[in-house]
């Protein structure tokens, strides 16, 4: 068959010349200076009608971004103590290790300039633009170059190619900061020569807390841990492609795998460079109480925005020509079209600016102050206009405009009038009830005697607490399913937070599936000029021409286009725009938010075909699922797909259009892996669909007789990285055993005799950094790696998980997988694949979280790469991924009654659109400890502590993490009981809001991730920890504390109606064997699996009608499906189980449990209120807590 190629040079990945893929029309269209009014009506049609609407381009400009390769690889976890940072001190610094934490620093950025659309005025009138002129109160000057929305424009050819090389031309600037030692309470100035703003790299712990220790430090003995020295080294993972590669690969007949010839390639180089040491920001002293007027003036004068200063982003892990990747994600460096500035206004254009770093003037206290309007006072009668999340209700189009309120202070120019809308400084009159101590005690503060009241579990699922806001703000607030805070009443100071002994943090589910989502197509995305916050329902309009940011309090101009509301077809009502009526919106971004054409959807499947994999039988399920869902893969006409298989060699598949059958190309030199035919291994899905189907039909039988027992996973991943580097995309890896050949080979580290240890659990961290380095390289090229581990033996998931953890991928684990011997796992894989292959996906994404001035973020949890101080790089984002954030209070919030949080997720859709999804959450500020407890969200607190405990387990020990979880309960209840009056020391009292706290913590301690004394496989434990770090709250809580229902007595009395279906609603049962009866049948919902336990004496009518068998003895051991029987009890049971399944993305499998079933052990281990040999019962746990409190 002859050699496939000779003198071939494979793509180097970073900075190589790459093919140009066409972008959909509309992404690079010219925007006219003027548009007729009729065109404006189309601006928001995407909110109601499906279909593609072009996003008009603004000033497209290729930028020269700064690139600093130095990055700090974290060895800190969730302590708030900054690492040692220069100076002469040689004292050790305490810390811990985290896969998702970082240190907050700031750094100088490089800038590019864009023409501003609102810089010059013209003589034309508003009427000439076709707008209805209906205001007698405001002069409405028109500016030239205003961008008006339109539906379609003549497309312009997309410019630029993937992998375009940029040059680094700027370095971090010199700044000033101090080193703080939290243990000695000393603050040491760093010598000027050592002062720098340092870019933050891979997963370091952000340290921005005040001199008062944060809540994690104050939970003594809690999740703070001792810190190890960091090596400050990162892998650049560059690939040297400077020399041509001479290689020969055999073109093997498709049906005869096995013939191989040696091949060689350039060796992947690994370059380490030390990162500069870091130090924390100097602590902020609590602000002195001052008048709201003065506070407002100072906030606007400096335009300050805590913890969102621009930071120099580290370059991707590659060669020196990697600035392209840095610039590619320029999310919000885009032209700021929300305010009038000079046409040469500098705009950040690197990663930080992408999602919108601050402007240069916002980082200098010497910048010119902006005009300072007087403090606004809204009458009690005026109310904000808006509706509930997330639909756009038709009624508000006919709402009566509010009456302007006269100013109470002479701070404004006489020509301006106050514009009524609820905002941070306008709501004091309508926020009654925030100070709970002066009113009737709320239900959330009702004392509960935990040792006396045994029935604390509610009959239905625990709802998220409702923030104590007025009804109008409540309707506008973000859904807790997307954005949730551990405390719905934010303490005024860090000292008050420390007294409460509760963590402050956010739980995010930013990309979740939504049934209704306002989608906004506009050439103007209105944002704050200072902190880059997107306009939202919680800003305030001073008048028709100015709005005040609810995060940094800067006053901004209202763009001309924003004055027109296409939904009401009216002019002069900016407060009625959809952006200001919905806390969750999605913008169609213009080309200003792109630095290359949107990438196509690219999918690469890397499949283990060793003897172990063939025996397990997973290939048949995977190939069949792909065949069934091939047409449902998210994408457009540019979608590309490829396949790699591996055992002791690596096999590629040529699927180029025109071939009669797929060609297998085998590379046996795994120590020097290369791509035999780079141009034909990733093919267009639509053009080569028949060849792809032929391959999927043949793959399960191609390796039936293989005797290869080795696994060259590392070389296969290296090849996959090279293949995906030019475009980015998603790599799906299927692995069935421990990698045993080539790069990344692993050895068994598990001692089966130590699985039940009550002391030390070892090897929770990776054995090698190969997979982490590879993941960081993939992240730099916008490629995520998803891992499917189908293993019957130890596979060192602690090491393999790094490939997904640091590339923003996801992990699926199927222990003891076998297609025929374990049908439950086989069914689970099939259902998971259906969801995985068809769910929506976002490519080349970045996410930033902003918060009100005075608050700061110091630790992230989840699967991602930290690109800069508060910017997360997500090569892929999926709707099933969750994130957690720890926060602290840097400055006193005495001068504000509300705080807001906003997350912005910029991504490329599978259709090639650049989109920005924005969520905004508003919460009240309180000054009393009782109010803090009243607003505690116990489920959010537990989920955040679970994330923190995982990091503590890896950085310190499992025993330390367990102790810290127990101490979290002890400390918080001790603090509460010390503030409550008339409490007897013999009682264990908790506020009603925290009555489930001890129960949930006990459930957490009995999870596979943290339990001891029970035989737990190391891979099972590590997978549980991975789930804790990446699951959204709603799914994580099912995993921690399952729901138990009795279903043999379902009736039509307590039901709900869902569409045309009647769904029974049985009450929740305690997770205790005392609730089980031999005469009953019980369903346990564990999130990813349903257990249906049947008692030995269960009614035969139920068994016959629901299970389809005449009696208990005839029910099979491995039953996973309920038959459709025409009986009321069968219909009720199936309706209830279907309703539970419909509430989550992954469809859980059902497993019927009998007394002699081996799975009975798993079922009873979830009964967390019962005692086991190595763990307390719930009542014993309460007594232990009470004993520690009384010490």
TrEMBL record:
Biased composition range(s): Low complexity: 272-292, 310-320, 335-345, 364-379
Sec23/Sec24 trunk domain residues: 598-837
Matches recorded under InterPro entries: ADF-H/Gelsolin-like_dom_sf, Beta-sandwich_Sec23_24, Gelsolin-like_dom, Gelsolin-like_dom_sf, Sec23/24_helical_dom, Sec23/24_helical_dom_sf, Sec23/24_trunk_dom, SEC23_SEC24_subfamily
Keyword check for Metal-binding: yes
Acidic residues biased stretches: 321-334
Gene Ontology molecular-function annotations: SNARE binding; zinc ion binding
Gene Ontology CC terms, in alphabetical order: COPII vesicle coat; cytosol; endoplasmic reticulum exit site; endoplasmic reticulum membrane
Pfam families membership: Gelsolin, Sec23_BS, Sec23_helical, Sec23_trunk, zf-Sec23_Sec24
Sec23/Sec24 beta-sandwich domain sequence ranges: 842-926
Domain Gelsolin-like: 1064-1137
Gene Ontology BP annotations: COPII-coated vesicle cargo loading; intracellular protein transport
Localization (cell): Cytoplasm, Cytosol; Cytoplasmic vesicle, COPII-coated vesicle membrane; Endoplasmic reticulum membrane
Protein name according to UniProt: SC24B protein
Region: Disordered, residue numbers: 1-34, 272-293, 305-410
Membrane topology listed for this record: Peripheral membrane protein
Listed Polar residues bias regions: 1-19
Taxonomic source organism: Platysteira castanea
Domain of life: Eukaryota
Domain Zinc finger Sec23/Sec24-type as annotated: residue spans: 525-561
Major localisation: cytoplasm
Protein family: Belongs to the SEC23/SEC24 family. SEC24 subfamily.
Keyword match Protein transport: yes
Keywords from the UniProt entry: Cytoplasm, Cytoplasmic vesicle, Endoplasmic reticulum, ER-Golgi transport, Membrane, Metal-binding, Protein transport, Transport, Zinc
Domain Sec23/Sec24 helical: 937-1037
